[in-house]
Amino acid sequence: MKTDLQLKHDVEAELEWEPAVAASNIGVEVKDGVVTLAGHLASLREKIAAEQAAQRVGGVRALVVELDVRLPGDDMRTDADIAHIVREVLTDQFNK
């Protein structure tokens, strides 16, 4: 049976090997064979590839995924910003 440290190194190596994953954006923690992946990725495809890579490693008892997908240019908008955009769209629609 692998130690948590061995398992962590194996998962990190598998993530590095996977070409669809930017492993430097993913943190790996292991406790009692349960692997947690955390970080921010650029696409859903990359997130799925990271999950599959971790699951390929022998000795992983369970996988906790705390990966967020942040699309390029995906800015956070405030409620005021959204309200302003809605007003503009509605005004344009009613002024036609």
Automatic annotation (TrEMBL):
It comes from the Bacteria. SMART domains: BON. Residues 3-71 form the BON domain. It holds the Pfam family BON. This is BON domain-containing protein. It comes from Paraburkholderia caffeinitolerans.
